[in-house]
Structures are given as structure tokens and as C-alpha cells.
């Protein structure tokens, strides 16, 4: 826990950003930059150097290549958004793990003083929290997008709809890899209204269409390929029944559903990150490959194929 909190605080102070822009820096100079005590920042810097996140030389402290890539807010595969979300939302939940285990329920009421019926209402009650949550989802989506998009050959499909696709990180990767694929992102209106900050820059960016809506209640856009990335593990069985029934009903023969989740092994003990994530006690659950196969076949999807990518998300493709 001390390792993790050191990373969280360094990220919260944007320490890695300052070192990328101006490093190497002495502790006293960085303390002035970020507004901390000299002794406090020096101890944090030494801790991050001990963890292999920074390099320490007589000239001062500087980022490692990995820190520049993953820990700065503008790194190529920045996880900064997810780290801040983990500090501000997940860390408080896990401080109440004992109660979560005893009660078998989420601890939002203890951690934040509320108990929203909808998992995502907590994330959209203010612009700041919404921006933080979307940045977290964008971090993981951007990091995993290429491996998910290339796990299977999707070139046969002409149109795709990413349900709950948030900032469109996966959608933009898909249109880069499959130029003839028309991709729609379908997400809540409050999400769609906030996507401009996350859109890739450059004149050659292929277009992605964003459509506002609630995939539990509203009509789904037509597509040959539907995508659920990091969706199914969040929801209880009754909600999944509604969603998969809707997708199955609009799918034509030959259409497909691509699911991006962490796929557990059959003993449900690996990978550890998925098993530990389940301790947050959402109403949903992590599933093994055989459980995803059984679930999808229940709604008329066949030829279920599973690809373990080696990244944070695996891929499951099935056909109607």
C-alpha cells in the first residue's frame, strides 16, 4: 500500500510532468514548482527512485523512459487519468474492504457518504468527477485499443458500434486499422457532450460518429459488429440480460459481438488484477472463458473465440 500511495501522490502532484519538462531537478527546485516542503518532496523523490520510476544523479532527479511513457499526463500511453481515479475513488473504497467482505456490497456510503443505485451516477454528478472518470477510462482504452482491435481479423465487417465506448479511443484505433470500417460510439449524452478533450489531433484522423443514448433503454444503432469493452463486468445479471437481449435482437445472421474484458482462467485465480478488482464489490463480476462462452451462447451467439492478448484486456468474439 505504501508503494501504491507513493505513486498516487507523485501523480497527483504532477511530479512526472514537471520532471519531463524541466528535469533533471533538485528537490528544492521541484518543491518550489509543486508547492510542497523540501524534505517531503525529497523523501517522495527518493521513494520513486527506489521503485524504479525515477533516476537520481548528482544533477538531480529525472524520469525514466517508462515514466515519460505511462506516468506523465501527456505520455504516449498515459495512465495518469486512471491513477488519479484510483487515488480519488478506488483507494477510499478499498479502505473499507473489511466491511465490503462482511456485507458483500459496495462501500460508497462509507467512502463518499452516498449510495447511488446506478454505478455511474457517482461519476457524473459533477463536471470535475466526470472528467476524471472519463480520463481514467480513456487511459485503459487507449493502452489496450490496438491489441483488442487486432485480436481477430475484423476486416469483413462494414460497420461497428461501440456500446459505452466513452471517448472513442478504441473506435479511433479501429478506423486506423480497418479504413473501410464505419464506427459509431454509443454512450450517455453527458459522456458524448464531454468528448472533445479526448479526440486525437491531426488532419488524417479518420472520422468516428458519436451518438448519445442509453443502451439499456434506447434503440441501438445498426451495425455488423457490436462491441462491449469493459461493460459486462460492471452489471448484475438482470441488466446484462436486458443488454444482450437487445443486441441479439438487432443482430442479423453473420453479425458479431466483440467483448473486451479480462478473461479469468478456469480456476478464477488468474490474472490477479481481475480477482483483486472484484473486491470492489460491484454488482457485476469477472468471468472465465467458459463462462463468457456460456453467457453468449444463451443469447444466440455461436462460434465463441477467445484471445488472451497479454495486455490489460482480452478479447472474445462471437457470431449471431
TrEMBL record:
Role played: Catalyzes the transfer of a methyl group onto N-acetylserotonin, producing melatonin (N-acetyl-5-methoxytryptamine).
Quaternary structure note: Homodimer.
Record-annotated active site: 233 (proton acceptor)
Domain O-methyltransferase C-terminal, chain residue ranges per copy: 94-301
SUPFAM superfamilies assigned: S-adenosyl-L-methionine-dependent methyltransferases, Winged helix' DNA-binding domain
Pathway named in the protein's UniProt entry: Aromatic compound metabolism; melatonin biosynthesis; melatonin from serotonin: step 1/2
One Gene Ontology term of the molecular function aspect: protein dimerization activity
PANTHER family, per the entry: O-METHYLTRANSFERASE CICE (PTHR43712:SF2), PUTATIVE (AFU_ORTHOLOGUE AFUA_4G14580)-RELATED (PTHR43712)
GO biological process, one term: methylation
Organism: Pterocles gutturalis
Protein name, per record: Acetylserotonin O-methyltransferase
Main EC class the enzyme belongs to: transferase
Domain O-methyltransferase dimerisation: 2-73
CDD domains reported in the protein's UniProt record: AdoMet_MTases (cd02440)
Enzyme Commission no: 2.1.1.4
Keywords: Melatonin biosynthesis, Methyltransferase, S-adenosyl-L-methionine, Transferase
